[in-house]
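Posting for a labmate who doesn't have an account.
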Amino acid sequence: MHEHAHHHHGSNHLKPLVWGLVITFAFALVEAVGGWISGSLALLGDAGHMVTDSFSLALGAVAAALAQRPANRELSFGWGRAEVLAAVVNAVLMLLIVIGIGIAAFQRLREPQPVQGGMVMLIAFIGLLVNVAVAWVLHRGEQTLNIRGALLHVMGDLLGSVAALIAGAVIYFTGWTPIDPLLSVLICVLILFSSLRLLRDAVDVLMERVPRELSLPVVGETMAAVDGVESVHDLHIWRLDSRSISLSAHIVVDDLIAWPKVLERLRETLHQRFDIDHITLQPEPLHFDPTPIIDRVSPPK
């Protein structure tokens, strides 16, 4: 006997990604031109971030659209993991960007180049406002791994804009150009940790790992303590996507006739204690007689 409690999630993931894509791509062109003219690596790096942001937001929008598609015969769980795959791609892209900017920064430290501090400050300030607006739009949406991946890119750009703004001010008032690549390296280190964390969370879902906020032994002990339950075995807990948690288990009960009431208590406990609603539970009798009711009949010779 199986019991499924399904959750149908809203489709509020697509709109913030589309708005973020439009705003980000438009300003990426402006920032790239400004960075080229001014000679600022921090500004060019931030423009590069925003171009990849546009790609990541487009990828996220496609994944969010796919996630809304219903399940079918081939994908019985639906398309929810498309968003998880998009998060993996976004995290890997950010790691590649960090490596690229880090290499460019060290080259710039070895061979300093002139930077127009005033233009850098102006464009970086506008970029900061744009990134704050996009981050606000994304933050208002449901925090799926897909949205988190897109938000990671935008936060990287926001930090890049701050770095470019500070670098522009230091160069404008002091003429010390090494501040530009140094701040770029600092931002890369900050983005690196966020990228690795996002990649870890996405891989957890793909590997069907027990969610990090839950403990399999604790959940099993809690279920075993429910009235009418003798023991629990073959317990599995995993995420179907970045939102829903699934659980399956075999439940040993003393009285199969009381199973409906035991099942209801288990469902209520799992929902209230652990926010788990998609469950598959199989009851088993405590005293099981393995003797077959009808012996196998040998076929006639």
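Reply:
Got it, the structure tokens are right above this. Residues 1-11 have pLDDT under 50 and may be disordered.
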